[in-house]
Design goal:
This protein is an alpha/beta fold and about 625 residues long. The chain has two domains: about 65-280, Growth Hormone, Chain: A; about 320-630, Vaccinia Virus protein VP39 (Rossmann fold, 3-Layer(aba) Sandwich). It is built from 22 helices and 14 strands. It has an eight-stranded mixed β-sheet, with helices on both faces. Helix 5 packs antiparallel against helix 7 (about 165-200) and helix 16 packs across helix 20 (about 545-550).
Length: about 625
């Protein structure tokens, strides 16, 4: 068991940090299949006749109740793993690498616990008393880990300030450690329970199958029940309380069965029960990123994420698993509203649009102003539940009859939906958090394309801060590989941290008078983000088709099989170097961008003046950055 779990630990780390990164998803799967086949061949080649049990062994009755006990310990162990993965995700640790470290911490703890007990198991006099003691320690460690989780960010910052490691490295290290320590106790329980159940060392091989079946069934049911029932309906705090007391109940059952009530064991059980419950009950019931000075106006733990709404000085922000995904400040409003208005203005008489992610509902609300049917695909229903808190910016879109809210995985929904759309926009969590890398792959953009009409327009929100310029090139190249008529747009009314990619079936030739007419029903909404004229919209064009082709020449593609952006530089996680990337994008601007528009001589002259004003804005943003940072931004490509 110890060696098997060490192998699982190595497999988790290799897969999370090496195999997928360097060989791809399919090759990693094939390596796992080949490994299983190799094991089968080795076993088949080396098999020998089974040994009959020693004489008289059948008469020894095993402790059959241990089957049920180990079912419960399996239930608890995978429940804790599921619970801690969810809790840590609220602090931004929901990447593949973070998951691999959490699983590896568990597996290493299991293996260390199994190795420790293997050194003493055959000389121990009262194994059941030891089993109950370890159950008590498991309960205590569960309560302590919960206490640490509530102070996770403060501890991580302290480590980052005290050690030669950044904040992200500190959080990953903490995730590993807090998973490892309780798992050591859990790792002791399986081999110890097997030894008790077998009754004699010579019967272990005969009885191991029963124990494995019982324990593994508990593991499977624990992960399912915790993920789909306990956390959504009881919450993570109450789930911890259940698991802590279940461990204590197991300890009590084993003590009663063994008739081993001593003063010391009884006192230990009672003391841990009281202290562990007090430790849990006395702490906060919520898990979210600590935002000093903000009031929590909404908090819910859903099936797929923890949703929090915070408020301060009139600003409201929506957070999912600790990340600010949308809000009411000018930059986030510009993000949400332009992602709706830009592609719908460029589309030819649109009738139906789809947005990936509902968020605060602002994009959906702005889309509805175009008098189109809107589909919003959202995976977490708690986000929709929070929508009334943002009615000022979403215009009560959640209650609009022209909005169809779909609770589903966006990629799967777009893949199977039986109707085409004139516009599809994807507005997902910032890629620097590495949370949704499969909503930026070539295959995903191709699925979007298949769901568009022949004249349909695709748009994707992309961050330009918190990632390297090479990663930005990869993102744009991936989109451009599906939509060869791709253009890049940047909001210029005030500094922002994003661009919008637009993919059209043919080169853009937008009539300025037509765009002016399209603005009539949305003019008031555009004014909320300081847009007063069609020229301010048109002059947001940053790079034309040829500029994009020059930018992405030689860049790699982000695909399902090789999700290279999931493994890009995590050191940029806490940075916001928007201006350097913006300046590098500007260095590829060589086309006459006015050629993408048509209008009268007077209109074209006004547009040219606005393009010059936009260029001034770009220079101002970069200069502000250089003065603030004290270093010059390179712009060559």
């Amino acid at each position: 068991y110890y060696l098997n779990t060490v192998g699982a630990f190595a497999g988790a780390l290799l897969t999370g940090f090496v195999l997928v990164k360097y060989f791809g998803v399919l090759a990693t799967l094939m390596i796992a299949v080949a490994g299983n086949l190799l094991v089968a061949i080795v076993i088949a080649a080396g098999k020998s006749a089974s040994r009959p049990p020693p004489p008289g062994e059948a008469e020894e009755a095993p402790h059959s109740y241990m089957l049920y006990v180990l079912f419960l310990t399996g239930f608890i162990s995978l429940s804790y793993e599921m619970l801690w993965v969810r809790i840590l995700s609220t602090y931004g640790l929901s990447t593949s690498q973070a998951f691999a470290l959490i699983v590896a911490g568990f597996l290493l703890g299991f293996s260390v616990g199994a190795w420790l007990v293997s050194q003493r198991i055959d000389v121990g006099r009262n194994l059941e008393a030891a089993f109950s003691g370890v159950c008590i320690l498991t309960a205590a460690s569960g309560a302590i880990v919960l206490y640490l989780f509530r102070r996770f960010e403060d501890i991580a910052r302290l480590l980052a300030d005290s050690l030669p490691a950044d904040y992200l490295a500190s959080t990953l290290a903490m995730a590993f450690v807090v998973s490892f320590i309780p798992a050591v106790f859990m790792g002791v329980l399986f081999p110890l329970g097997l030894r008790i159940y077998a009754g004699d060392v010579h019967r272990i091989g005969v009885k191991a199958g029963n124990i494995f079946f019982s324990n593994t069934t508990g593991c499977v049911l624990g992960s399912l029940f915790t993920g789909f029932v306990l956390i959504p309906f009881a919450g993570m705090w109450n789930t911890t309380l259940v698991l802590v007391n279940l461990s204590l109940l197991i300890a009590l059952v084993v003590i009663v069965r063994n008739h081993s009530f001593t003063l010391g064991r009884t006192a230990s059980l009672v003391a841990v029960a009281v202290l562990a419950n007090l430790l849990v009950l006395s702490d906060s019931k919520t898990f979210h990123t600590d935002m000093k000075g903000f009031d929590v106006i909404y908090y819910a733990e859903g099936l797929s994420g923890t949703v929090t709404a915070l408020e301060k000085d009139g600003y409201r922000g929506l957070f999912v698993d600790g990340q600010n995904v949308s809000g009411t400040d000018p930059v986030l409003l510009a993000d949400s509203k332009m992602l709706a208005h830009l592609p719908l203005m460029l589309a030819d008489e649109p009738e139906a649009a789809l947005t990936v992610g509902y968020g605060t509902g602002t994009t959906s609300g702005s889309m509805l102003l175009h008098d189109v049917e809107v589909h919003a695909v959202e995976i977490e229903d708690k986000i929709i539940e929070a929508a009334p808190l943002f009615s000022r910016v979403n215009y009560d879109s959640y209650a609009d009859p022209n909005l169809r809210l779909i609770l589903d995985d966006a990629r799967n929904y777009i893949d199977v939906v039986d109707r085409p759309f004139d516009v599809i926009v994807t507005d997902v969590t910032n890629l620097k958090y590495k949370r949704n890398p499969y909503l930026y792959t070539r295959e995903y953009f191709a699925i979007m394309q298949d769901a568009l009409t022949e004249t349909g327009v695709a748009a994707a929100w992309l961050p330009i801060g918190g990632l390297s310029f090479e990663d930005l090139r990869i993102l744009i190249a991936t989109f451009d590989s599906v939509y060869p008529h791709s253009t890049v747009w940047y909001f210029t009314q005030y500094p922002t941290h994003f661009i919008i990619l637009v993919g059209t079936p043919a080169p853009i030739q937008a009539d300025l008078s037509g765009l002016e007419a399209a603005m009539e029903g949305i003019r008031a909404d555009l004014r909320t983000i300081r847009i007063d004229s069609v020229y301010e919209v048109a002059s947001m064009l940053l790079l034309g088709e040829q500029d994009v082709d020059d930018l992405v020449a030689g860049a790699r593609l982000h695909t399902d099989n090789h999700p290279i952006l999931e493994y890009s530089d995590m050191g940029l996680y806490m940075t916001s170097d928007v201006e350097p990337n913006l300046k590098r994008l500007l260095s590829f601007q060589s086309e006459n961008l006015g050629a993408y528009f048509a209008g009268s001589e007077e209109q074209m002259a006004l547009l040219e003046a606005h393009f010059e004003e936009s260029a001034k804005h770009y220079r101002d943003y970069v200069n502000q950055y250089e003065r603030r940072s004290g270093r010059r931004v390179g712009g060559s490509h």
